[in-house]
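Running this now, will post back.
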Amino acid sequence: MPRRHSRNAPDRLRTPGRFPGFLKTASVCALIAGLLSPLSTAAAAPAVAGTDVAEVTAANDHCGGQCSDILPPGQNGNATLAQILLNQAFGTMPEHASDQLGPYAALATGHTGLTNATINTFFNDASFGVPSDQVASTVAPAGRGDVTIVRDKKTGVPHITGTTRYGTEFGAGYAAAQDRLWLMDVFRHVGRGQLTSFAGGAPSNQGLEQQFWRNAPYTEADLQAQIDNAVASNGERGRQALADANAYLDGINAYIDASDRGRYFPGEYVLTGHKDSVTNAGKIEHFKQTDLVALGSVIGALFGSGGGGEVGNAISLLAAQEKFGVAEGTKLWESFRERNDPEAVVTVHDKSFPYATKPADPQGEALPDAGSVTEEQLVHDRTGSAAGSAASGASATAAATAMTSAKRGMSNALVVSGEHTASGHPVAVFGPQTGYFAPQLLLLQEIQGPGISARGASFAGLSMYVELGRGQDYAWSATTSGQDIIDTYAVELCQDDQHYLYRGTCTAMEKIEQKNAWKPTTADGTPAGSYTMRVWRTKYGPVTHRATVGGKKVAYTTLRSSYLHEADSIIGFQMLNDPDFVKGPEDFQKAVQHINYTFNWFYADSEHTAYYNSGDNPVRAAGVDAEFPVWAQQAYEWRGWDPATNTAQYTPPSEHPNSIDQDYYISWNNKQAKDYTTAPWGDGSVHRGNLLENRVRKLVAAGGVTRAALVKAMAEAGLADLRAEDVLPDLLKVVNSSAVTDPTAAAAVTRLQTWLTAGGKRTETSAGSKTYANADAIRVLDAWWPLLVKAAFEPGLGSELYGAMTANLPIDESPSAAHGPTGAHAGSSFQYGWWSYVDKDIRAVLGESVQGPLDRKYCGGGSLSACRDLLIGTLKEAAGKTAAQVYPGDDQCAAGDQWCADSIVQRTLGGIKHGRISWQNRPTYQQVVEFTSHR
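Update: finished.
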């Protein structure tokens, strides 16, 4: 049978989506019968008899039953071989594998009548402890007497309670392995660039390991050095973190041993050839300290490493200067870059935090000679299936994703101070958009032990602490911020292509290689193949491109401030979990200052709210423009930079956007504050952050904000089409500036106007209908947008410059888009697009006031009538496109199925498949919190 391929790299991990033909229903049943073990996964540890460890309301819980959370599809991310076969054959689900997916999906249509009393119809009760009548199981992992793991009946979330610190962390590791062992194993191999050898050589697996290993090509010694440095530089907390990690690892490995003996380990180990289902031969490798750093490097690269893209910026600037001259071309480029757009929505109000601003007199720029840039080859010595066109395509996509500044952003936050709420206590609705996977990248847990008291979500394999969640009387969350902590240096070559000038001395580059080979398995039938990934490292980071600058041969490298420091952030998370450390907003801000990933952090307790932007922001040399490559010379290096440790001077906490008790905060990966430049393009007048800003500002102005009202605001924003809400009204102003006489265009205008009047949302006609209300209008806009952008801007920019600009910022990211960092069926939408450009240009053509305008008027050359003709012409073309043309179908959906094209798919990272749900643009893990008291 043909294998199914997806466009989203993480999803394309080859899993047993289809089994060989000989596994017919009867033989599947027979095989399942033979594989069913008398031990279930619950038997991984002895039950604690006669012990009432549950509490109806924990004494240290100050939320008063007003903390809620949700994380689809379900807590249980492990499945035995028998459970996988049952799921594949009959669609049956292991217990707690999908019981949070239904409530999560139901909010899309159920939010309209939401009240505080019905919030937990769509969320879990996130109170500490488990009511006695809701205890599903209580076990002592590995027979230990200093820790218990209680799981609740409704969701199966582990509530880990320890009497010793070691026991507490041992329990956290054991519970994580119970819920996510296979996923943890997958991602430790991703982080080491060894996924194909472990899980199979599917092109998607090749792309995934290449994407991450390119930017973090660590040796085992590098990984260990990060641990040693984090411990040595953080005193007692560093030593405690190491002890916690070791206890956590002991818990993981105890579960591996127990599940191996009991034969209830994840069935994917059999399907990928690591274990034998009959003899139990084979081995699941124990986890070790460096695996945690490898895991951390993947998560950091996915969500917390802002910057990059300087070479692409340089190419587009040169294209602009070539067409319009240096002065006019630079002006044009800067207007599209929108470094500090005065119309951009910001998280911190009325305060400036200058960072990475445009220097008055740029110094050290190393722009490439025109046409000289070539991408550094990563993959060498391809054999077998690694030499095919699908493999080459996966490599190209991985390289583009790894080197763009348009990183996976996602996540949102809505926080309102007590001054504006009905109760007088702050209310927060926040969480990370980490995509949709099965099993999910995150897991839920509660940890109670000496020095730890928290419930929330953590990345699988890194859950020795709660990373996003709530403490006894406070809650916190994060969104991706994207400020620039990555710079590109031009190292001048000497002797040959593998030597460069370092502070005047010809120095050899370091060659780092990872050789991978694979063969077909039941889970992945990709034919045998192999290749070698090769990275050349310099003191200024890995080489990404080759070029000439002023005729001199150079290699472009990327230097990231968190490079070789993936382990450092553990201290900040440890502090967030410590009730003796976090007692108010100032302590919260001090904690997250220890996190070197680029995140926006939000906080709420019963009295205060707070915000802080984290990340090691390097202090650049005077005159260095962070947007472009600079020469690898000491004069242009980060101030105080030590190449041996990759440490430097960093901007002080006071210069990071921060705030306490602002009237409200919103964030959806938008600009943090005035004068604070983020690396991705697109922080302009129209941003998806506006969808939150407009709704929360209105709620705050009215006063009396409740949890339900804030959830509804989030849910409405999560169904809105940003183009429809913020750009379409002005487009229709132009179109309707004269009577529309063409019948096709007139009918399309009527449909679009009707949709706008109804709210401009992408919603089902009724729950489960799988048909959108105003479906024709949505189809027309989806077809019209790329046509109108190209028609409006390409004539004025020219084809070459238009192409360079779209490489910096894609024109669209609708829910059905299969491009960009999120891919198709991923929920998160409208992060990157040309909506600000269209908005500013159309308003300028209409003669309206525009702050921070583009360098010129583009639509119709600035003529209202010509612009109108252009828009009507493209609108007629769009209206004539069939649904099958607009939604061409993929491995999930038939051509023309609009609802399916938008739908969210839980991307399989294991053997369990889930159904599609209707589109929502909201966090994957989400909290709703309102604390009623404080310690």
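DSSP finds 26 helices and 30 strands in the chain. More later if anyone needs it.
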